[in-house]
Amino acid sequence: MLSSVFAPLLVALLSSGSAHAWFRVACTTPLVQERVDPIVSPGIIPSNHVHTVHGANNFAPNNTYDTLRASSCTSCEVTQDLSNYWFPKLYFKDPTNGTFEEVSNGGLLVYYQNRGNGDVSNGGPGLKAFPPGFRMISGDPTLRTKKYPEGQGSQAELAERAIQWSCLRYDTANSTGYDGHGFPYTDCEAGFNARIHMPACWDGVNLDSADHQSHMAFLSGLDNGVCPSDHPVYMMKLFYEVTWDVHSFASRWDNSTGWPFVYATGDPTGYSWHGDFFNGWDQTALQNAIDNCNNPNDQTGSGVTEACSYLTVQSASIAGACKVSPVVNEPINGAPLAKLPGCNPIQPGPGDATLYSDSNCPAS
């Protein structure tokens, strides 16, 4: 059964009309939170900004597919999946003194979706499992504004549209004025919900690329459609969802002070929201599940992961016990911080932000 901690996330997804998920990988508590990024900054300690990391416990600055497959546990609930998933941490910037405090969330929910014209249910030959060594990202930590007309359909516009937000409210009368782009302007009593569509079209050759995105492309309709001719291999489409408890801070700010939450990237706009995926799947198990567990006549056609005989779902308590110690020794939680970890000055845009390393941090 899906953990109750994800109830607000599931309700939001159902209401958005995107809930025809094939199966779900729930990751309730983080494996670790630190400035490490084996995709964008492999081998570099520390990387630019703090991530919340879920998945296999061999996560490291220079991990590989083989090292992930040798992991002894995963903080996610499907045991055949020894992948890592990560995204930037959210902080509350106190309007009275400028200090930063972490904002808690209900965990990461990853939807593995059968989408696109390549899927059997859409008349295609079938989707392919992620190959060993495969990795990708969606989103851009430097973005601070919307750049493309909605629905234009270019890959750049699809990449922008792949990053989505919702302010979950009980009092909808007070939510007017928020268009769903970037951070909202009011409290979100039921949580601030952020989502990421990952690209599902592979070039069939490269396991990664210089920008960690060009080897992949989005489906023509983002959530469905065709793959570009230069990215002909249809894969499972991943969809990330996280809901933060911003309401816990409601008594400490109001609209006159402005939205007080920022990502670890130094972003007060929300547009730098992004997600990373480093494949650690048992490839045979995933391909068997793709080929045999999307049956409209049983529960596998309704996103019930436990109904797929090729996948083993462990309890949230067992998954939650899988932890690793951070390799970067710095405060990121607990007492209020005088500044964001690393060199991440607040950059509101609208131009793209600059990403700094600890060694080239400009004088404040």
TrEMBL record:
InterPro entries: DUF1996
The keyword Signal belongs to this UniProt entry's keyword annotation: yes
Residues of the DUF1996 domain: 37-281
Pfam families in UniProt: DUF1996
Domain of life: Eukaryota
Cleavable signal peptide: 1-21
Keyword tags: Signal
Record-given protein name: DUF1996 domain-containing protein
Organism the protein comes from: Serpula lacrymans var. lacrymans (strain S7.9)
